[in-house]
Each structure stands twice: as C-alpha cells, then as structure tokens.
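As promised in the previous annual report, we have extended the structural survey to additional targets. Below is the entry for Methylmalonyl-CoA carboxyltransferase.
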Amino acid sequence: MTILQETATPPLTPPRPDLGRATDELHRLKEEVGRGPDAAATRRQHAKGKLTAHERLELLFDEGTFTEIEPLRRHRATGFGLESRKPHGDGVIIGWGLVHGRTVFAYAHDFRVFAGALGEAHAAKVHKVMDLAEASGAPLVSLNDGAGARIQEGVTALAGYGGIFRRNVRASGVIPQISVMLGPCAGGAAYSPALTDFVFMVRETAQMFITGPDVVQAVTGEQITHNGLGGADVHAGTSGVAHFVFDDEAACLDEVRWLLSLLPRNNRELAAPVRGEDPADRRTDALTGLVPADPGRAYDMRAVIEEIVDDGEYLEVHEGWARNVVCALARIDGRTVGVIANQPNTLAGVLDIHASEKAARFVTTCDAFNIPLVTLVDVPGFLPGVDQEHGGIIRHGAKLLHAYCNATVPRISIVLRKAYGGAYIVMDSRSIGADLSFAWPTNEIAVMGAEGAANVVFRREIAASPDPDATRERLVKEYKSELMHPYYAAERGLVDDVIDPGDTRRVLARSLAMLREKKADLPDRKHGIVPT
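The corresponding structure token record, generated without further manual editing, is:
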C-alpha cells in the first residue's frame, strides 16, 4: 500500500513594498502636509495680512535649520463631523532650529486648520515641544494665531490648556519663554502668553481678551471693537500685557531674533558676549550736555542710555506702558545688561503704581537669567494722590523693593541728579544691596527736596519772620549746603564714589567686569512671598 504524503502549502505573504516607491510616497505626503489644507485657505490667510505658520517659522529661524516633529499626527476625536476631518498636524507645527546659531524650540498655530483651535492631539504636540525645550535648556517661542479651545472636543481641549499653563509655570525662570501674538487669542488661551517672559503683538491682526466684544456688550452694554478691546496698542499702552508692538510680522519676528541674542539659553548660563568695536573705556562727555544741572528741567533718559551702551543700541521693554520708567536690554563691553532708569520726560520720572510693577517685573526677569542690573536714578519720589494710595501704591512699590532685594546678579546704581525719599531707597540704593553705587557731581540725595524740607523743619521760624520769603530762601540754602551737597552721601559711605559723567561708561564696564564672578546665596526656602 502506497501512502501519499501531503506537502504543506506555504502561507501567502504580501509582497515587500518597494523602498523607492514608499520613499516617494513619503515625500508626496510631506509636501502635501507642508502646503496645508488647500490653496484657498492660504489665500485667505494672506488676504488678512497674515503669513502661514511655515512662513513665520522661516523668518524666525536661521535659514534651513528648522526641524519639524510630529507633522503627521492626527486627532482621534469623533462626533460633530470631526471623524471625517482629520488633517495631518492638527493645526500646530512644532520643532526646533537655530537662531543666531543657538538652539531654540517653537510651536506655531496653523490658522488654516480648524482656525488653529486646540484639541487633544494639538495640545499633546505643544506639551511635547515644551517638555523638550525645558529638558534641553533652550528658549521656547510660541507663534500664536488660534481660535482657542476646540469646542467639539469639549473638556478634553480645556485640559490641554491646563497642561500648557502648568508647563509655562514650571519653566518660568528656567528657560526664556516668548509669546508672539499674530492673530486672535481669546478666553483661557490668553493666560499662556501672560505666563511667559515677553509678549510681542502685531497691530490690527492680533488681539487678546478673556471675553470678546459680543460678551462684553451682552453683559455690560458697552460696544467696542476687537482691537479696541484687546488690540496691540491697548495691551502695549494701557494694560501692560504686551512688551513689544510692531506693524508687520516680518519686523516683529526680526525683533524676536534680536531679543533671543540678548538672552542666555537658560538660567544656568550667561548671555553670549558679542564683541563690537565700541571701546569699553570710551568717554561719555556728551552726557554733560544731555542732562541739565537744574533738577527741575526735563530731559530724555533714553539719550543717556544710548550714550552709555555699546554702539548706542538697546531694546526697550514695555516702551509704551508706564513711560516714567525706562527698562531696556543692551550691552556694555559686549555683555548683556538690564537698564532700569527714571524718565524725567514723563511725570518728572516719579514712581507710581504702573512704573513700580513694570520695573519690578523687569528686575525679576533679569535676575532669573543672570543679567546684571544697571540703575540710573533721577527720581523726585513716589507719585502722590488719592488714586495712587487707594490703588495700592504701597503694595506695588513694595514689589519693586522686593525684586531688587531678592536679586543676586551684579547690581550697580548711578545717581544722576535727584534721589529723594523712599524712591531713592527703592531704586537700588546701597542700603538694599546694590554692589556699587556711584553719583554724578549734580546729585541731590535727601529725604525730600530742599524747599519742602525747609518748610517742614523751619516752619515756625519762617512763620514768625517779618520777611517769610527771604527767610525761607536763606534756610533752603542752608539746608542744601549742609545736607544736600553732592558729597554728603559719599562722605557717609552710601555712595562709593562721585564720578565725572564722562567716565560713566568706563566705570560701568570696569565694575561689571569685576562683578562677573559674583556669588550670592539666598536663604534656604521654597520662595519669597511677593507683594501683590
């Protein structure tokens, strides 16, 4: 008997894909993703005066250095038609590149996809790039142009924002965080920019508000436009939310690049030095003509800053808000410094609520990122008035005091002319920890101006005099000669030296070089409690 042995049929296997065809398909897909949803959406974006997300990233980064990650990610939500609309990228582009040769991370909303609204997948991408930036110790830039939470995804979208806010706070003071507002930003979405270090806005196209004009009208009856409620100029000059404002996106992103060049990569490093041709020991004799000796005459403090810093270049922060104090980033001898200065051209340079807040935030930011502080003092005091007192000038002035006292970076102050009362103390005087304090020979450091002091100290003598005006004039001169002469504070060790204004840049450059390795420790604590 013959036994026939069955031969097993081998299982069928799918043919291996041709690697060349698969690669071609990948390139086609990537090109399609890069173009966006359709040409019409791009035309609509351009018609609004706005660039696409990819075009913005090209302006931000050094040419050809941007690397995108997760470009093929799609949402997995269903309902309300979402299951039939699953575009790649989910409305946000994330990645990293180089800015002036240094690594920077970024995410950019793509308004052409779901109007840039945030859903679960979108949020996960943003969380990813934020975590990478913090782990790598590199700055993070967000290019904001989105319609807020994706309503179709409900509370999941809100949770995505919560994850962004938590990461903003965790990275605060660790890496520089910069928000660039290039379109709408409404509701809870506005809190992420508010938590970052610097906010840029473009006029006409960018708005930020918690509740839009329609809600405002429904609740309060007030009628207002989108720009009137939360446009760039409103936030630059009234609310103080925006630090920088520009007319177009190209100029805005170019300024972001300049800011990044002035900042360190993280809180463990110093800003990279940039050596120019401006000598550190250059004389600043022009200052004697810029600053009037008469303490009552106004002048523009920005001209003083321009004369002192390298090549006359500086980046003013919050230029349009609280103009009675100037905050600027610049370089002296090639190294970044933060300059805080009273502005006699506005409100005589007094400190008020907004000026105190503005300067305090700037001091804290510089201290977080190891940027030395140079304070130029010409202050008549705090602004008096019922509105200021009821508005909490005590609390707000204390913010500036807290910021300076808490700062461990090199701190140098120069009294140009007057420095009266509590405002003198708050503007980084020796008594609150300035490493070095200098003064020009026109300085007047006192509890108050001579006229006011004489009226208080010699009130009875003046009142009893047969010629009160002559007596007051004589006593004012006596008070000035005894307690307000230019060397009074220096004689008591409260000023390290009285210097020739022409030596100001040289003195600053040498002092900053000496303090470069300064070490200062704070008490062992979780954190101080900032006055609010």
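Residues 36-262 form a domain with the 2-enoyl-CoA Hydratase; Chain A, domain 1 fold (CATH 3.90.226.10). The chain is about 40% helix and 15% strand. These points will be discussed at the next consortium meeting with the crystallography subgroup.
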